[in-house]
Write a structure and sequence with these properties.
The structure is a single chain. The mean pLDDT is 96. The chain is built from seven helices and eight strands. The chain has a single domain, classed as Glycoside hydrolase/deacetylase (TIM Barrel, Alpha-Beta Barrel), CATH 3.20.20.370. The chain is of the alpha/beta class and 199 residues long.
């Protein structure tokens, strides 16, 4: 019997907008899915209760920098400031210490091309660097995960047979929140199971 393939859901750029986040959290709860949220420190500072709700609903919260710069082009000092401030605000808001970082745009975060400054700072802050396997491109116009995006996702899934568990990238935005129930239904129809994020 062939082992069923699995997906892990990850969401970038939260925790705002709070309305989109709440809809996403409700959909995940209805479908018994645990996800990870890579949040921006500046948004956590503006809305700590939204960050708290991620933890309260049983999900993982991780570091996506403070202000969404290209960390691969930033100095070591800038990288350190972006990640350390975000670590501190996540801890202050939720009591949790993030264990992973996803650099904005994935810049400098791919295993064979880790940016040296990012890698060094991540080590100093006990963060492991993670990107994704499947890009929904939900931020591109038209935003969300409509039929055109579904075709693109299917192509990526079909072309990525080497891994049994694939990380699917989405964003905290209204259109994605609206399309999420149908996306989950389609993934189930394709035979995928939902895995929990690793620590």
């Amino acid at each position: 019997m062939t082992e069923k393939r699995k997906v892990v859901f990850s969401f970038d750029d939260g925790p705002n907008p709070a309305g989109a986040l709440n809809t996403i959290l409700s959909t995940l709860q209805k479908n018994s899915i645990t996800a990870e949220f890579y949040v921006l420190g500046s948004e956590v500072e503006r809305n700590p209760s939204a960050a708290k709700s991620i933890i309260a609903r049983g999900h993982k919260i991780q570091n996506h920098s403070w202000s969404h710069p290209d960390l691969a082009k930033a100095s070591e000092a800038k990288v350190h400031l972006e990640l350390k401030k975000t670590q501190d605000i996540i801890k202050k808001a939720t009591g949790i210490t993030a264990t992973k970082v996803r650099p904005p745009y994935g810049a400098g975060g791919w295993p064979r091309k880790h940016d040296p400054e990012l890698a060094k700072v991540a080590r100093q802050l006990s963060l492991s660097i993670h990107n994704w396997d499947i890009d929904t491109e939900d931020w591109k116009a038209p935003r969300g995960i409509g039929p055109g995006k579904i075709k693109h996702i299917k192509k990526q899934l079909d072309g990525n047979k080497t891994k049994t568990t694939l990380n699917v990238l989405m964003h905290v935005q209204i259109e994605t929140a609206k399309d999420l129930p149908e996306f989950i239904r389609i993934l189930r129809e394709w035979g995928f199971l939902f895995a929990k994020p690793t620590s």
